[in-house]
Design brief:
One of its GO terms (molecular function) is copper ion binding. Belongs to the CutA family. This is Divalent-cation tolerance protein CutA. It contains three helices and four strands, in the order βαββαβα. The two termini are about 15 Å apart. The protein is an alpha+beta fold. It is elongated, with a radius of gyration of 14 Å.
Length: about 100
């Protein structure tokens, strides 16, 4: 199982990405919330509000998820970070049952 993070420029984009991922049946749920970010872009420091999206997925769906995010994201270089994770057996089964097989 993977936990994957990405960020979005605003709530509308976060909802759009969440809907695309849910409707693709690659992830069974997405959490998103407003955050404050500070980062370097084109050699300048930027500070702004963004939305962080967190979703769980099966490892075999990572590449499709990555491609969907790139195809539908407003950022030239979207943050896509994944972590391997362990889950309770019942949660893992729920994940399997609610994603495309």
């Amino acid at each position: 199982m993977l936990v994957i993070h990405t960020t979005a420029s605003n709530k509308k984009e976060a909802k759009k990405l969440a809907n695309i991922l849910i409707e693709s049946h690659l992830v069974p749920c997405v959490q998103y919330f407003k955050i404050k970010s500070q980062y370097v872009w084109r050699k300048r420091v930027h500070k702004q509000s963004e939305y962080l999206l967190i979703f769980k997925a099966l490892k075999e769906h990572y590449e499709e998820i990555r491609q969907l995010i790139y195809a539908n994201h407003s950022y030239k270089i979207p943050e896509i970070v994944s972590f391997e994770a362990k889950a309770a057996p019942t949660y893992k089964q729920w994940l399997v049952d609610n994603t495309k097989g």
